[in-house]
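Troubleshooting entry. The earlier prediction with iron/sulfur cluster gave an output that would not parse, so I re-checked the input for stray whitespace and re-submitted. Clean input:
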Amino acid sequence: MRPTGALHLGHYHGALKNWVRLQSEMECYYFVADWHALTTHYESREVIEKNVYEMVIDWLAAGLDPQQCTIFLQSRLPEHAELFTLLAMGTPLGWLERVPTYKDQQEKLKDKDLATYGFLGYPLLQAADILIYKAKYVPVGEDQASHVELTREAARRFNHLYGREIDAEARIQASLAKLPKDSAKRFEKSRKAFQETGDAKAQEGALGYIAQAPELDAQDRERLEGYFKGTGKIILPEPQALLTEASRLPGLDGAKMSKSYNNAIAIREEKSSLEHKVRRMPTDPARVKRTDAGNPERCPVWEFHKVYSNEATRQWVTQGCKSAGIGCLECKQPVIDGILAEQQPMLARAEPYIANPKIVREIVDAGTERARVTARETMREVREAMGLNY
Ligand code: SF4
């Protein structure tokens, strides 16, 4: 997540709630993407500096538990930049230019000059962020699914380019030479049948045979299996997008909630400001006077009721709105109460961190060191595969 501003309820419902759930289901890595923030905010670094630790406090408030997941800071791990650079060598420019969000964001953020190398390359930096941990899943919204696809393509290309040993042909022949001659011949025949016709039986027989052959060691087996399938070694596994169901909470005006649209409620918004914002929310334009009947489907407040109210309250709203039986301020009160109730445990969790910001830094430091162990190990394998270990 990019540290470009205080997190709002749209982030909470769209992503953070899922992050919290996932931390107890699998090993999770969550990081402050400060380099990514620079791709659009390279002229305003103070924004990023201010928000790095504030964002982590929002995460902890939402329920991320540093005992259960790894929380870290991207820029403390130069390994990400190294992998980004190495992936960049073989990545066709067209792949990046075709990412839908590239043109889209340039259009949306017209006030910024985003015709930069960094902005074009950021999906590849994301790919490096993911691949360096050999992630199996990436929890994303549908709008980010194309980035995971690019990550998969980058991994596939890397494995194709560098998953084979430098003197692969000679090594394959050496491994084959360890087998009895007629077995090696049969293996070759099955390989051709499999590669020409996809003969599954031939594959099963041949791979079953080499798995058992006492003449081969583990490296021979891996090499011959790759040779048989026509693939290289998988150095960077391809991740899957984890499209989790998220409740959508739009902004106060019904558009996407975003700080830059001035329609957001921060996760830790002050009570008075929260009340003020909800009370000023636009409603169904047909309800000019209190006595005019309205329709919740045309009102942004209704979207909030869908998230914060129970069935009974929703019925009260529908009926009261359509019959002009309730006023809009009255209708908004359960939303205010719902948000305040949701905020309660979050504010309580945030309190010790606000009082002692040192703990937040310690959490990030410890998480960063934990992440570094994995990142370093992957980079060792990557350098070796690319022949950079001279
Ligand atoms: S009564 Fe509620 S749903 Fe109807 S227009 Fe007013 S705020 Fe919207």
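This one parsed fine. The domain at 269-355 is CATH 1.10.240.10 (Tyrosyl-Transfer RNA Synthetase).
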